[in-house]
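PROTEIN DATA CARD
Card holder: LacI family transcriptional regulator
Chain length: 335
Origin: Nonomuraea soli
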Amino acid sequence: MPDGPTITTIAEHAGVSIASVSRVLNGLPTRPETERKVMRAADELGYVRNAVARSLKSRRTHQIAFAMADIGNPVYLAMVRQIQPVLKTAGYRLVLHSTDAVVADEIDVLRSLGERYVDGLIMSPIRVTDDHLKMIENARAPVVIIGLVPDGTAVDNVRADSREGVRLAVGHLHERGRRRIGFLNGPLDTVPGAARDAAFREALEECGLPYDPALVEVGDFYREAGAQAARRLLERDGDVDALMCANDLIALGALDVLRQYGKRVPQDVAVVGMDDTDLAAASWPTLTSVSLGSAERGRAAAQLLLARLEDGGRAPTVVTVPPRLIVRESTLETS
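Structure generated from the sequence above:
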């Protein structure tokens, strides 16, 4: 058989009808005994199902892409752990893209939807540009965005209320008697950076505390960048008694520097992160952090995409996951 076995030869080898072979190889319901016979015959004959041909016929690839800024960030790993089982249960494979938060790469991913290599896309951009919005509007396959997009954008959207999360964190620090609260943020041209900057100012005002630019450092959302930002702030103002950090990676970098400077946490400086990643509970001391529901956002995004694949004409849905403050050792002094 130079061209390999066919469903006819499989049917003969298994002792079943051609129709039964077709049903089994296309994943349609059939009797368990018939399925076992067909699959055993296919294996013995070396039959390889042609997924490409099936996808061309059905116009479905049974693959979903997830594009994120940094595949090494625990936030996205938490999302993947929820997205994958939801999609797998529905018969889809998950394809991962790490864009390094490069807008051109994210636009290219959106543009490539026209090539039909996947049936849909979940994307979590930290910058949302006019080009993003235009490509989303004209996307050739369903798209779900994890993150904040302008109200009225015609796309299924899962978002966290990071502003409320920052207010929870600053309010907690204020309740613990902290009055010189520093802020280590990510880039202000990103959606989370801008939102958390505005929320920090609002939270200070609610607590009756002045906004002091000398207590604010802007860097990036990485551990080393957090360390550098903490070092700059401490060298400028050593009297800071708390640090609000825009994510857990920044907070871990800050903890590294505080130890180098001989600052006790939380006795001298209390520290709060955001995202409540696995690293928060594993750090020393354990890190108080604001959960933005990464797992819940991932699961909701997968469910929204499946719903869109079933009904492409329904109105866009917006899901907002509320934040939760998880208090640990980095803000709790013990006697």
